[in-house]
Amino acid sequence: MSFEILTSTIEVTESLATIGSNLNIAKSTLCAVGAVGEAVNPFVPLIGTVTLVISEIIKVYETVQYNKKICDSLMDRVNAAEAAIKTLKRRQTENEKNFRNQEYYKSFIRFIEIMKRIKNFIADVSNLHGYQKFVHSGSVKGKFDSLAKDFDIVMTELHFTMAVANEEQRKIDQSALESDIADMTKFLERIGGDIIDQNQKINIVLHEVSLMKEKLSHSNSDKNIKAKKIKSTELNDPLKSKMTDRRGKNSQIIKKIYKNFEVACKPIDLLNGDPKEAAKIQGQLAILGKLRESLNIIRFYGLSNTESSDVMVFEWAEYGSLKELYCKYDIAWHVKVQIALDICRGLAFLHSCDILHHDIRCEHIMMTTRLVPKIAKFKYSRMTTGPTTDMKGLTDVMRWMAPEKLRDSTYSADSTESTKKRVHVPYTFKCEIFSFGMLLWELVFEKIPYEKWDILKIKDHVLAGNREKITWGKAPPDVEKLQQGLAKIIVSAWKSDPAVRASLQNIFINLDHLVDEYCTPDKEFANQLLPDKELDLDGSRVVSISDEGGLELPDMDMDFNLDEIPQIIPLEEGIAAHRKGEHSKAWECFLAHADLDNSTAKYWKGYYLWEGIKVEKDRKQACELFKEAADDEIADAQLRYAFSLVNNPPVKFDREIFLKYLTKAADNKNSTAQFNLGEIYLNGKLGKKDEKLGKKYLRLAALNNQPKAKEVLQKLGINVYIDI
Q1: Do 487 and 550 share a domain, yes or no?
Q2: 330 SS3 class
Q3: Domain end point (choices 263, 288, 315)
Q4: In this predicted model, what pLDDT tens digit does every residue of 495-516 receive, in sequence order?
C-alpha cells in the first residue's frame, strides 16, 4: 500500500499549475479585447475565475466515489457552462453590449458563485465524510434541485445556450437522484460498524486518520506521530510450538503471543535508513494502527523487539494468504462470495480514509482460522528489503494492474525523440477497483491471472481491451446463478474506461445481494474447504484458462455466458489473414465488418465476391460494394469500381463515371490508378489525349514506386525528379 500523502500533494500541486496556466491563457485571450473597447475589462478577472472553478470541478469529479449519477447530472451543466464560456471569449464583439450591462455583470458574479456551489456539492456528495452533511436523503434532493434551478436561471440571464434545461434532462436528473439515493441508503445500512455506527454517523477513526494524514503531508510534520511501542517482555512464545510458527523468506516472520492473542512479528529496519524516511514510516505505521477498527484489515499492534531485531507486530493469520489457501484447498462457493464481500468492506474502509492499497491481490489478503479475510501487505509492512514505490519494478503486479497504469510507460504524443518523457498517470480509486476485479477473478478460478504469460504479452492483451476468460464447469443451478452474478461484477470492475468502471459502492451492493441470495442458513453446515481440485471451476481441468487467452469485454446489459458471445476479429487481422492465404478467416472477418458498415470491409467483401474467393462469384454485388466504399474515399475501392465497369456484362460501361473514379483513386495516391490515368491521357485512350497531364500522372505513379510507370518514363527519357 502507498498512503499517497506526499505523492498526492505533488499531484495536486501539478494540477494547480496546469489550472494556473489555463487561467493565464484565459486572461491573455480576453486582454486582447482592447480593440473592442474597455467594456470587457471588468469581466476579465471574472472569466478567469470561472475558468479556474470549472477546472477544479473537473478535478473533483475525477475522484468521485459515491453518487456518480448525481454528479454526472451536474457535470452535464458544467460542460454546458464551459462551452458557453468558450463561446463568450470567441465572440467578444457580439457581446460588447452585454459587457456594458450592469445586470449582466451581476448575473455573471452569481454564475461564478453557483459554479462554486456545484463544486462543493460534488465534493460533498461523492464521499462519505461530505455525505454526512446531508442528514436525510431528502436534503440531497433539495440541494440538487436548488442548484439545478439556480444554474438554469443564471444561464438564461447570461444568454448562454443550454442543452440541459429541458424535460428530458429533468427526467434524467430525477432518475439519477432516485437511483443514487436508494443505493447510498442500502450501502450505509449494510456496510457495517467499521464505517458507520448505529446512529448512522461516520466512524470517528476515519476523521482521526484524515487529520493524521494531513499532518504527515507537511514537510515539518509532527514527529510525535509514531507507532505504539510494545515491550519485548510482552511477547511470549506459544505454549505449543509448531512447524508453521515461522513463515516467510528465511523464516523471518515469527509467531508470538501478545495479551493472549496470536501475533506475527515481522522484521523492520528503522535505524539504518534516512531519519526523515524513518519518521515518515513511523507516521504511516501509526495510521496503520488506527485501521484496526476494520475487521477486514490486518490488525497492527505496534513496534517491538524480539530475537535482537526490531519487528512490527500484526495479528496472526492461521491459513496464511488467500493465495496459499486456494492453492491448498478448493474454497466452497458460499465461502468465496462471503470472502469477496468482506474484502470489499475492507477496501471501502480504506477508501473512506482516502487510503489506497496499490497492490490488491489474493497474495495480500490474509486468512484467519474462521476464514475472515484481512487486507494486508501494506507498503511499510513489507520486509526491510521490500520494493520501492516504483510500481513498474514489480513485474507480478502487472497481472492485476489497470490499463491506464499499464499505459504509464507511454510517451506524450507531441514529444520528439530528444524530448520524450513519460506521461504520469496517477493511481486512483478506479485503478484499485480494476485490481479488485482481477482479485475476484483470481478467487473465483483459484489461479493467478494470465498464468504463464510474460509481461509484454499481458500488457498488449489488456491494452487491446481483452481480459481473462470467464468459463464455468458443471454446477448445480443455484451455483450457476451465483457464477453469473460474480461474472457481471468482475466484468463491471475491469472496464477499460475508468469513467464507466463500477464504483466500489455498487460492487459492494451487488456482492451483498449475492450473499443474501446464496448464503442461506443451510450453507452454515456445509463444508467450507474442499480437497484441492475437487471443484471443476472452469469446465476443464486440463486446459488452462489463461493459456487459452482472453475475450473482448461483453456488453453489461447482456445476460451472458462469455463463451457464447461471438467475437469479431479486428479488420487488420482479417487483412493479414488474407495475405497469409487464410481466406476463410478473412472472409468471415470482412463479412462481419461490412455488416457493421465499415467501408474498407465492404471493399474487401466486394473483392472476394468479384474473384469468387470462398464464395460464389457475384460481380454485380461486388460492383455495388466497390461503389459504396469508393464514395467513402477508399482509394483501392475507387480503382476497383472504375475497372468493374469494364467488360462486366451486368453493368453498363460509362466512360465519364470510369474516368471520375479512376481520377479520384489517382488523387488519393493510388499508384495503379495514377499509372492507368497517365497512360490514358498520354496515348489518347477513350478519346482523352493530354500528354502533359498524362506525364504528370505517370511521374506521380513513378514517385510512388509503380514499376510500369518508371519503365514508360525511362523509355520517354523523362527524369522523374525534374519538372516537365
Answers
A1: yes
A2: strand
A3: 315
A4: 999 988 999 999 999 999 999 9
